[in-house]
Amino acid sequence: MRATLIAPQLLVPNTGRRRPGWALRVRVRLLAARHDRELEACVPVLPDSALALHVHRITSAPERQRLADALRSVLDRAHDGDAPMTARIPLQRSRIRGEQVLIAEIVQRLDSPARSRGIARLRLLLADGAGPLYVSGQGSLAAQLRGVLAAL
Fold it and tell me: Domain-by-domain residue ranges, the chain?
């Protein structure tokens, strides 16, 4: 597999610097969840850091589009149900259907540039199998979605 498929073109914006090395790009991808938690905790983003590279990647238009597609998929699965035999964690279908207006608003916001903290919060919500989006999870889905919306 070509490296460009694993790590897309990540140019540091408006700095005139060369593209970061492959080792840094791979490390940023491997530690994406950690970087999302750091952004959620308002850790300062230093120029030329791994966190800055992560911010640049997650706020890019293709990544925002992937997140919007993931939310649309969650809505579709909440309405249609999952296939009988799937490895996916079952969704809190009734909660998701009850919050479809908030989800649609988040999808709409993802069409335009968004703040990294909101995107990080959304990525954490989607990835947390023990969170309010999924059957095994706890907490308030509405509160989490409002937090994402406020941070975007």
Answer: 3-58, 61-151
Quick check: helix, strand or coil at residue 91?
A: strand
Q: How confident is the model at residue 136 (pLDDT cuts 50, 70, 90)?
A: confident
Q: Which long-range contacts (CB under 8 A, 24 or more apart) does 3-12 make?
A: 8/57, 8/62, 10/53, 10/56, 10/57, 12/48, 12/52, 12/53, 12/56
Cβ atoms 99, 145 nearer than 8 A: yes
**pTM higher than 0.70:** yes
Q: Which two tokens stand for residue 6?
A: 């694993």
Element (H, E) at 5: helix 3-6
List the one residue out of 101, 112, 105 whose CA is nearest residue 60: 112
